[in-house]
Write a structure and sequence with these properties.
The structure is a homodimer. Chain A is mainly alpha-helical. Chain A has 5 helices and 3 strands. Helix content of chain A is 58%, strand content 11%. Chain A has a 3-stranded antiparallel beta sheet with strand order 1-3-2. In chain A, β2 and β3 form a beta hairpin. The N and C termini of chain A lie far apart (51 Å). In chain A, 27% of the residues are buried. The interface between A and B is large, with 53 and 53 residues. Chain A binds a DNA duplex through α3 and α4.
DNA sequence: CAGTATCCCTCGAGATACTG
DNA sequence: CAGTATCTCGAGGGATACTG
């Protein structure tokens, strides 16, 4: 890694800081993190809360988060098996920026949706004027 | 939109607030936004700064951002053509949470990288102990 | 319960070439 | 200069079925 620490390196798609953005954009990862923000959750609970994700995909997501040191996986030796996932300190520290983002989202999404409608309408109109 | 405004709706993958997370995670969108944070930029400049993205992909990205009302596209009628992209007020307001995220990333990515190494090493070791 | 093992299949990024 | 038009290819998400 020979990239310097200037803010400019965010422009490099290979900059390691991109991994964070990738996780945020991941379909399930950010959801899982938010859920775990309230405390440890079991695999099957997670599946339900996060709205019927397939076990394979959920496992992939959880493994990735565990690998990044954002969550821990604890197996309780008992039958039936019981596995709990929990945020690490690192994971919890991500909660803050995540919340900020969510707040921005909640307050601005209506505007975005309006912008989309307006854009799409303008598109349609343009099509009507110059039919191909 | 019949979803309530409880924080819990973030768990719904169809929740509109997800569009924000998608943009953040988009390979180029967040980069473009950060670049435009310093002022209007032309298409070709954008291409260079963002590290040789193909014109098709850059166009897609820009159109999406424009549709969401995050940037504007201004065509100057002259030869050769000149098109500038610029953040809207909405787009600028996104700069703040984006910066927070970037700061988190810059200060925690080393930890994440270490966690990955540790995880991968543990995996390798486990493989050695129980060869398939 | 908490996964793993397969197969499928779409979608998005990239390469390449062409145009107003 | 600022795009558009095709094609390809691989990764990731999902469905389904099976296991310790």
């Amino acid at each position: 890694m020979d990239t310097n620490d200037l803010p400019g390196n965010v422009l490099d798609p290979n900059c390691p800081s991109r991994v964070v953005f990738q996780r945020i954009g991941d379909k399930w990862a950010s959801l899982v993190i938010q859920v775990l923000g309230d405390g440890p959750v079991r695999f099957s609970e997670l599946r339900k809360m996060v709205n019927v994700v397939t076990p394979k995909v959920l496992t992939q997501t959880l493994r990735a988060l565990e690998r990044d040191g954002l969550i821990t996986r604890t197996v309780y030796a008992q039958v039936p098996p019981r596995v709990e996932y929990e945020l690490t300190a690192l994971g919890e520290s991500l909660l803050q920026p995540l919340t900020m983002l969510r707040q921005w989202a909640e307050s601005h999404v209506p505007t975005i949706l309006e912008a989309r409608d307006a854009y799409d309408d303008a598109q349609d109109e343009a099509l009507l004027r110059s039919p191909n």
